[in-house]
TrEMBL record:
UniProt source species: Segatella cerevisiae
InterPro entries referenced in this protein's UniProt entry, alphabetically: Asn/Gln_tRNA_amidoTrase-B-like (IPR003789), GatB_Yqey_C_2 (IPR023168), YqeY/Aim41 (IPR019004), YqeY/Aim41_N (IPR042184)
Pfam families registered for this protein in UniProt: YqeY
Name the record gives this protein: GatB/YqeY domain-containing protein
Superkingdom of the source species: Bacteria
């Protein structure tokens, strides 16, 4: 079952359970999926990899929104945003811990023979490819900078 099909099925379950937060969140994800499928230059299909990237983008937006709401003393909206993020995170692979990310980055640095900040681009490209969906880019970037400095 593809990620798109799973989301569609879970929308039906959320409707039956009358879970408004889950339903709204899943409908938003499906809307983004449909837009990606019908975008100019798209072949009309949506791979699970693309779907995961879309969900990651939505999670990041949700967290940013929640932070903004907290800053502006809008706790109810921040809580709602974080509730939606929790629903979206159920569809993402388990996130790696910082220790795991650091170990993987050290392995990548050793395999590429990187030794200075000049090699950061190469290391980041490989790290993002290997840890796609399991680690945030800014966390990877911070660890790469620390290890190459």
């Amino acid at each position: 079952m593809t990620l798109f099909d799973q989301i569609s099925l879970d929308i039906q379950k959320a409707m039956k359970a009358k879970d408004k937060v889950r339903l709204e969140t899943l409908r938003n994800i499906k809307k983004e999926f449909l837009e990606a499928k019908t975008a100019p230059g798209s072949d009309g299909t949506l791979s699970d990899e693309k779907g995961l990237k879309i969900i990651q983008k939505l999670v990041k937006q949700g967290k940013d929104d929640a932070q903004l709401f907290k800053t502006n003393n809008r706790q109810a909206l921040a809580d709602e945003s974080m509730a939606q993020v929790e629903v979206m995170e159920e569809y993402l692979p388990k996130q790696m811990s910082e220790a795991d990310i650091e170990a993987k980055v050290k392995e990548i640095i050793a395999s590429l023979g990187a030794s200075s900040m000049k090699d950061m681009g190469k290391v980041m490209k490989e790290a993002n490819k290997e840890m796609a969906g399991r680690a945030e880019g800014r966390v990877i970037s911070g660890i790469v900078r620390k290890l190459l400095a």
